[in-house]
Amino acid sequence: MPDHPTFNDLIDCHHRPDGPQAARWRTHVESCPSCQARSARMQGIRDLLETAVPEAGREETFRARARFLQAAEETSGLPWLNRLLRGCLRPAPALAAGILIGLLIWGLMLSPTLSPIPDPGNQVAQSNPPSEPTDIPRPLSIQPLSFKGAITRVNPDGSSEVVDAGVQLSAGSTLKMAEDARLTTLFRSGVEVVFETATVQVVRADERDILLDLRAGVTAVDVAPLKSDQSLAVTTPTHKISVRGTRFAVQVTPTGDTLVGVSEGEVLVTPHEPDRPRRIVQPGQAFRFKPDGSTEQEPLAEWPTLVALLAPVPETDYTSPKPRHTKPTPRVAFKASPATENSVTAADLLAEARQAQSGRRFDQALALLDSLQRRFPQAPEAEDALYLSAENQLALGRLSTAVNTLERAERVLTRPSLRENALYTHGYILQDRLARLKQARTVWARYLAEFGDGTLSEEVRFALCRNAQQSGQDIETLHRCRSVADRHPNGYQAPRALLTAADTAYKLERYKEAAQLYDRYLGTGQRDRRNDALYRQGKSLIKVGQSAKATDLFKRFVSLYPRDAHAAEVRGILIGLGEE
Amino acid sequence: MAFMFGQSVASIPGKEDPGPQAASHHLSDPELVARCQHGEREALETLFTRAYPNVRRILIRLYGPGPELEDLVQSTMLEIHRGLKRFRGDSQLSSWVFRIAMNVANQHLRRKMREPGRVDMEAVDAMAGDPDALNQMETNERLKMVAEILQSLPEKKRNVFLLAELEQLSSEQIAEVLGCSVSAVWSRLHQARKLFWEKINRHGYFSGEENEG
Q: Could you give the ipTM of this predicted complex?
């Protein structure tokens, strides 16, 4: 029986504390300081394995849930159509479908029995009856963009839940918000609504019709011009406020008054009592509608809550070092009224979007960039916005959308630096995120054709090297990695390119080349896989008959890595060479 | 051995199943899947809440915390959604979810080239002066080290090791997740443990040697 347990004995002791090995060695381990230390280190690793992993942040969970539910929503519409389209994108079904359609058309054209010439007098009788409208509006999902304070969602069945990251709102939901609570939501159709200390029910929310019932508190709405068949309205206990493309806020006071302030466009306020007059509220106006039917116009500036929601953010805030959340208004503030059109510029929006992006508020950044592109399509910043949109989509994991954006960016961007970034990001997503190697190669080729020695050219060339490696093209890998190391000898990727090239040459049994490449790699001073490089360089040198040099390398290897997996083999080789 | 989906989280000490407050929270696995297959949003939310922590935990064990983790977790959740229609209830829902997570992870690992680890200096700067954040970062770094060693294990051994040592599943549960026999689980687990500790040992963890100085 040996004096100390072997390493394998200790493993058994740890994993099977009730096993025979544990019983055999327990007393020894308890009394032997050396074994005790090894056992304690082993326990340290086991503790690490059992450590609870860091929990996901609220935003991370939110994004994952939103993407998951979005996928469910997208596939729930017309699954058979999705399947058909997916099938048609594959070559074989597409070819079969094409042939079938071709044959059908050909048959219809040739066969008079299949396509009788219609009798004009009979046309009406033969025509199909008008079909029922099939474009039933789909319900919209409502995404909370940001929130603060305690907010409860009361479901139609009476159950309630706290609005938190990822909680989706839908028609029928009633929100109850505590004092100072605020919720910014984005309806799928692009309407943004801010609720503040409100009790409000989402009565309807579909592609055509949004109806909110505000019972208390404030609701501010930012809506792009609606189509002719769309409508948006907010009802209060006494009035209905209808809009068609505007920015406005409504407040229900504790006394039951309805305050309506308009910043852009017009709203129509209709009392629930049919005999009372309706009123149009113009931009810059504010009215108080009392329950008794009387109406008073008041200066908008006297209603701080509405003003805070409607007013643009002061220009100084853009350069303020304060965190974004300290600003008084969310995105709604950037939808400037005609009177303040000049106060918000494309540069402001871009700066704000960059700030949101750096704060990892990607959804908000996307909304700002979208607004910039819509409002200032000709501004130079619109190009930045297009590229940055792709970056934010990438950050949100919307890879296909990012690819589409980048394809568009490559068509329309004129500024070289942006074009270069767009091409690089496009290639990166295709290769490293979607594993579409062939498509990535095409993008890399376009990059090199346009920016042969651009700032990202080294990364692109190394990406091509990895692309070849992942495609299993060894010769191509060797060639491309050598190219990276030769073109960018002092570059960041040069050591990795050299090591990859050396490994590939070794795999291809090009030992002379492999030895040279390993030598160059070791000369870079990199530590990553240095043991492998030394070992393989020595083996390569032996293969090409340079035993003396190989002996020196192997001696160095054994002294540096005496416990390496290849150490025993190398010692054997050295003995064979008469050295040990 | 049957084990309810969601219970696997609660059964591990220190891990709480957050669980939604929705009405579908108390549904059994078959009921939940049936509702999800009909596209019921509430059921999908419940499925997400039950599956997400498990998926994330297993992937964080394999990859360590990092920028690609979130994308992988989301991809796995999308795979789960895509696969829902094919789920026939032949196995436990939790086993099925684990299997998808393992498949996505293994597929990604096969594609992934080993890249040298980089320290996110911006994150370090941001955390300076915040002991909790620095402790968290140290834990993250150690998790990454273990993740690297796990990644270097052969696929079948790694799968068994991960489910047994980290997820604390029984051999029967592992056999169900991986679709192999219990004896194969034991055999692979024995080899995986040995290999894992050998690699830890080779890392110089026990001797502190093998540094080039």
A: 0.72
